[in-house]
Design brief:
4 copies of one chain form a homotetramer.
Chain A lengths: L7 E3 L2 E3 L4 E3 L2 E2 H5 L5 H10 L5 H14 L6 H12 L4 H9 L9 H13 L8 H11 L18 H11 L5 H17 L7 H11 L7 H22 L3 H10 L1 E3 L2
Antiparallel strand pairs in A: 2-3, 3-4
Helix pairs in contact in A: 3-8, 3-10, 3-11, 4-5, 4-11, 4-12, 5-11, 6-9, 6-10, 7-9, 8-10, 9-10
């Protein structure tokens, strides 16, 4: 064989004539009908099967992030579908490409912020003290704090804390995030809500998922939401109206 | 208000200062921790909550389609990540963009093929007779028939039939697909396996999901698989080796 | 060497320690400062260097297709940039993904339509007769005919005909397209303008460029227009206003 | 009119029934056949028409960046085309999505690095002194320095310096870059070449183009190169061989 010596290792999927293996399991015999889709997504990224409690917290995060109505990403996906209805994958991809630093990035940013704050801390942690230190030394905005619409309380936040608590999965990231919620008014002089994207990042970090991939879960969740938008765009389109509204009100600015 | 008269209707998500509504439900109170992610994806597209049986069949389909190892889409996602590691969304989008007619399109094509074959058929259906008619009149390849690797049997196919049967959801699309499996040798003169992508399309069509969006479920499933590849690419990269293998063996062809 | 036997041929670019070769030329010595960008794009796709006349027609096409104001693709690119300003490539890609069948596809569709009409025709062609036959036998809309805004005359059309004429490059595709403009009222009972995207497709086909890649030139042209939009979005943003206009006028539709 | 009050300003394109205006010009009468495509791209981004000398430098940059053979982005585009040949825009977009920090980002990074080094410097500049200061205080790698293949000299670098010199456009960014080439061995203890992507960034910055959009020109250039790859993939495909090479050498790694 000409190219032996080449090796491309993977611990995800392989197949031969009679079997498809995924994550070391027999896909057809062991996984289909036996693991949920969220559970499999967790397993694929983390490389280990989650417990039922971990799956519940994880799926609650995905549900929380799936759709926020007419976000820029949902509008972009619908406009792309209007332009190129033959390529559903293109419309979905266009929507996901908005999943960057500003709108979908908070989940990752918050998880990373908390992770870095906790790095090097050992022994029993006084979360309020650590939170105070973290808020005082923050140079920019603290990720996960504040929301343009939910100015007092983001309704997702207490619910996700509660679910994590129920499942025994309220770990250091969620605890530190909660403490930031308690102490930041002392430093900032105003009270901001802990937002839903941020608490999701904290919860994912407590699940032990890799920090650099956290944005990916927001994208996976949003993929479901965008499919909902594209299905709705087929039934009850708004893309042409958005386009016409902008085009009709274009003003030439020399 | 200057722009009243404009109306952008949606039945997905909306929010105000205290509540986030999704699909007519209170996201925090009614959905988080209470519905699974696959269940929500179905609901978002179909506009109705699936039953537990429907959810099980649907998640089995997503699990079946999530990853097939080093497909062209997985390799493209990894190479994009190698080139632009700062943009996880770009690598994921690049992978999904391969979800077109050839590799991921079979699910949609098969669902549509069966749907069109069943359109206009009424009364009790003799599936073998209908299948024979359909196979005889097919102009090109029959979607869902044959597989480059699983030449005799695609192991996903009998399992998905069985799950649908268990849940009382083996409807006309799956029955017709099964009948095509039985009768096509009479017409084609050779026996081909019913492939996994095809049976997934038949099962999704039997779930009443919109035919034009079927490809979207393959994309959603693949989004999870691609995240697995990108997480693995971080831990144990192969992208640079793929690039070097190609570049080192480039031959200038005048 | 482990993987000899592998060969990946290309006639585009290769490089070694001292030289970069592109299209059989020395990139630094023969191309930089000596060929224009449009000329190079033509050469890359066609595999041969265009004449000055071909370059002029080709660049006129790219100029004609570069921007049409606030198209759905331009709006999608701007919304993606709003959401993910850290990834210019993502915003550009999102805009290009709208380059499908409906908005940017006319160039390719028209080129292909004319190409197929001319296939098999030999000897001296009576263009009006052929056009009449083609218009009568067309099953759907004739690509390149009609425009939502330029209801009488698309101003690009006569100019591109004139440029092609000046350069001696008005070939069978442009002639047949022109004839369709003359004869279609007899068949359709109304007079529609030959649109700019269509005439561009005819001109590209007359340049001998591969029909299956024609859409690519519309995409290349649009890439420049989208960069203009993204640069303007930085200076004078409208993305947030578009988003707010849609979001503020969202109506929950149960 | 219901939505007056809405205003979406643009200085790019607008059209009415009889005219298409772009950049304040009549597209058909003033631009088509009269401006080159590179010239228009510059104008679209900079908001002013370039001089012939500026156009020559600019097009030399685009030509230099158009293609580098089987890069990860070219391979990703070809694999995407293999998977979804019905969507040329998807394959092009997938290729461009690799235009991030690592492979295509050097142009932008180098332009920005030089721009920041020059900010606040006034009066006559001693470029060697400034370069020395800049190299000494650099925390990470200096963008534009070094190349994996052209270990001694990147052949594009002297040619672009020469073209800029010829056109009277060798400004402070190119001069500082050149000085970095002279002085860095004193600090780093080894001599690295000034690479082509870096000199392109310096030249674009000297043209007064917006620093935050520099990556965009690398993307535009690469769009032409990727179209070349996709046209070649149609004529003489390698995508399936790349896929098979990887898949055949996949090793399950538990």
């Amino acid at each position: 064989m000409a190219d032996d010596g080449l090796r491309f290792p993977t611990s995800l999927g392989t197949s031969d004539e009679t079997q498809i293996r995924l994550l070391g399991q027999d896909l057809a015999a062991d996984l289909m009908g036996k693991v949920g889709f969220g559970e499999l997504a967790y397993w694929l990224v983390a490389g280990r099967r989650p417990t039922p409690g971990e799956t519940r917290v994880f799926e609650a995060v995905l549900v929380a992030l799936a759709d926020h109505g007419f976000t820029p990403t949902a509008i972009a996906a619908r406009l792309t579908y209007l332009s190129a209805p033959d390529s559903l994958q293109g419309a979905l991809a266009a929507g996901l490409l908005g999943g960057g630093s500003r709108f979908l990035g908070v989940t990752e940013d918050c998880g990373r912020f908390l992770h870095e704050a906790l790095a090097g801390v050992s022994g029993e942690i006084d979360y309020d003290e650590l939170a105070l230190r973290v808020v005082k030394s923050a140079t920019g905005r603290i990720p996960g704090l504040g929301h343009p619409v939910h100015k007092k309380l983001d309704p997702r936040t207490p619910v996700l804390f509660q679910i994590a608590e129920q499942e025994g999965l309220k770990g250091p990231h969620l605890r530190l995030f909660e403490a930031i919620g308690r102490v930041h008014p002392q430093v900032l002089g105003k009270t901001l809500p802990l937002n839903g994207a941020g608490v999701c990042g904290a919860a994912l970090a407590d699940l032990g998922l890799p920090i650099d991939i956290l944005r990916g879960f927001a994208l996976l969740a949003r993929a479901a939401g965008l499919l909902g938008h594209l299905a709705e765009e087929r039934r009850n389109p708004i893309g042409m109206d958005v386009y016409m509204t902008v085009d009709r009100n274009a003003v030439y600015d020399s």
